[in-house]
Amino acid sequence: MREIRLVSQTAGLPRPSDFEIVETPVPDGDGVLVRNLVFHVFPGLRILVGAGDTETPLPRLRPGDTLVGAAVGEVVSAPDDASVRPGDLVSHWLGWREYALLPEGQYVRLDGKLPDPAAHLAPGVAAYSALTREAPVRPGETVLVTGAAGGVGSLAGQIARLLGAGRVVGTSGSPAKAARLVSEFGYDAVLSREDASTAEGLRKAAPDGIDVVVDNVGGDQLRAALRVTGEDARIALVGTLAAQLAPEGSAASATVEFDLFELIRKRTSVRGVLPVDLESGAEWTRRFGAWLRAGEITFPHTRFRGIESAPRALEELMAGGHLGSVVVEV
């Protein structure tokens, strides 16, 4: 089998030369053996492979470690007492390799609720949790999604619309992506980074104020959004793309300065989103599957073919080369 390992940690954006493709024996031992079909390439890898010792939500990777990421695979073999059988599809976290050996409890059996196995890699549970739990949108409200062209953002606009938002505004650094977000993915308006980084620019697209913010960027865009929110606004912090896509640094810190008096005066709530709640994950999968089959939502993504393409896929993701998620078909 082949797998992708980290060669060196850098203080800037990862390059294909920071990784190597290694041939290694198919794992053998106790557990469920899975042949991976597809895995997710996500911007948070920038933090995991970067230099530094800052605490991160997932353990940092060191030179020689195999990369990780959400994956969907087919069970090849399983112990008699396992909860899956050969031929079953499972999701797990050991992507970036052709085969994975998984102990019980480190995989989830997939039940066919989604029409395409790759759709299980859609990061929509973060957007769904933000818009239903951490910063619930009410019918007719105005929603702002920063980083709207990313994997989360390209789903968040569609979800907000399905949940009854009256106006959905996004931000993007690409005019071409902005046009597609409006024509295909539920957005009423998409602002450039420059306009999104000032309160004046945001007010042009949201003259009545912003009720809900799904923030994937941080930085100047979050600070400007706080200026334009109305009374009882809700802000869900999902990502830190401003730091993750910065050409320098380790992206392990994402500091934003704002005025606490403004939050207090407006009674604004700010919540972080970690999509690890099993209940919200199951609810999202059920509703996502129904929306997909009804043609009410799409999963914007780019597929790379072959595990050898994964380092290039990560490089292009970091360069903003694609709208939506990036996945690799093994």
TrEMBL record:
Keyword vocabulary terms for this entry: Oxidoreductase
UniProt KW Protein transport keyword: no
SUPFAM superfamilies xrefs: GroES-like (SSF50129), NAD(P)-binding Rossmann-fold domains (SSF51735)
Organism: Actinomadura harenae
Gene Ontology molecular-function annotations: oxidoreductase activity, acting on the CH-CH group of donors, NAD or NADP as acceptor; zinc ion binding
Protein name: NADP-dependent oxidoreductase
Residue span(s) of domain Enoyl reductase (ER): 12-328
Pfam families in UniProt: ADH_N_2 (PF16884), ADH_zinc_N (PF00107)
Keyword Oxidoreductase attributed: yes
